[in-house]
Amino acid sequence: MIYDVAVIGGGPVGLAAAIEARLAGLSVVVVEQRAGIIDKACGEGLMPGAVPLLARLGVWPDGQPLRGISYLQGGRCVTHRFESGEGLGVRRTVLQQALAARAEELGVARITTKVEKIRVGEHAVSVDTNFDARYLLACDGLHSTVARLVGLARPAPQRGRRYGVRQHYAIAPWSDNVEVYYGTTSEIYVTPVSDTVVGLSMLARQHTDFDEALAAIPDLAARVAGAEYASSRRGAGPFRQRTRARVHGRVLLVGDASGYVDAITGEGLRVGFAQATEAVRCIVAGRPQDYEKAWKRTTRDFRVLTRRLVFAATTPLRPGIVPLAAAAPQLFGSVVERLAR
Ligand SMILES: Cc1cc2nc3c(=O)[nH]c(=O)nc-3n(C[C@H](O)[C@H](O)[C@H](O)COP(=O)(O)OP(=O)(O)OC[C@H]3O[C@@H](n4cnc5c(N)ncnc54)[C@H](O)[C@@H]3O)c2cc1C
């Protein structure tokens, strides 16, 4: 059988792309290496712009409303309440389940295997599991095998590599904002994901110890002291991944597989869903080459603002981030809004 679209990677962006393609009337197969409902290290904050993107696909995962972002450091706190609607704190497993159920309902085929070879032809792409597809969407995450196989991956920078580690705590949320605590060497994001669970997600240089980073932020450590863990600890990274281009013939890179800057702006999912929409639109139009321009447009704010914030967070400018945001709340708010929509 020849599918219209093969999606490699059944993470949230792959499933969103598969649903989008089915809604456009295309036949779709998702190839995912892991069976069952997949968990992954993530801050689990869907920015306001991601919620309608999911709703359009018919996906409404359960979660906690997110109404703003707070930056905190020492006794200082600055908060911006979203003007562009509510975001959603949602456990990865819950998001995966909602997307997988919708994909299944729409008749998306699923194969559980690790893709290791593809051959890009003039009219179709052959995938090593012995089927062909007219187009292939590479949604296989930060360390994309497909991007490497088609020669679009660039070596990741070695200097200043940053990683993320997440841990959930069984404790009632104390805020409806995503709180971002700036420690001396790490940022810890706090996202409520249900009435009884909050997730902490640490972003930092390689080998930073989660417990030490948490202990170095006494206000936050006191909040979760004594609470039971509600998940096992997971990590991911290095964040910074680069690609030469996003289109190679009938292969389109989508989500983290297309390149990633950092989780510091909590943006991966919103940007990935927007890319999925654009990729499918270009396929339906029979103009895959148009995706490159659409990708640049869709990701520009994320790339530029995230790079700037990572630069500030990893240089001597770091101690000035929260004081600057507090001194210029309108500037802080406008940056948050640009990223949240
Ligand atoms: C610590 C941390 C905090 C974050 N916080 C946030 C946040 O608060 N908000 C937000 O929006 N984003 C956040 N992000 C980013 C977000 O998690 C990612 O952008 C998102 O997971 C990207 O989804 P994806 O589907 O592109 O990739 P992934 O979720 O990585 O999915 C890729 C899938 O491809 C599969 N795969 C890989 N290789 C193959 C292969 N060869 N064959 C078959 N299958 C394969 C994998 O098993 C996986 O299931 C955070 C990330 C981290 C690490």
Question: Can you characterise this structure?
Answer:
There is one protein chain. The chain is α+β, with helices and mostly antiparallel strands and 341 residues long. It has a domain of 202 residues: FAD/NAD(P)-binding domain. 32% of the residues lie in helices and 27% in strands. The chain has ten helices and 20 strands. The strands form four sheets. Strands 1, 2, 8, 9, 10, 11, 19 and 20 form an eight-stranded mixed sheet that branches. A seven-stranded mixed sheet has the order 6-5-14-15-16-13-17. Helix 1 runs parallel beside helix 7 and helix 9 crosses helix 10. It starts with a strand and ends with a helix. The mean pLDDT is 95. Bound molecules: flavin-adenine dinucleotide (FAD). The site of flavin-adenine dinucleotide has 39 residues, from helix 1, strand 2, strand 13 and helix 7.
Give the structure's gist in a few sentences.
The chain has 341 residues and is an alpha+beta fold. The protein has helices spanning 12-23, 50-56, 92-105, 145-149, 210-215, 218-224, 268-284, 291-313, 321-327, 329-340, and strands at 2-8, 28-32, 45-46, 64-66, 68-73, 76-81, 87-89, 109-112, 118-120, 125-127, 131-138, 153-154, 162-170, 177-182, 186-192, 197-205, 234-236, 242-243, 247-248, 251-253. The protein has a domain at 2-44 and 52-62 and 89-157 and 240-318: 3-Layer(bba) Sandwich (FAD/NAD(P)-binding domain).
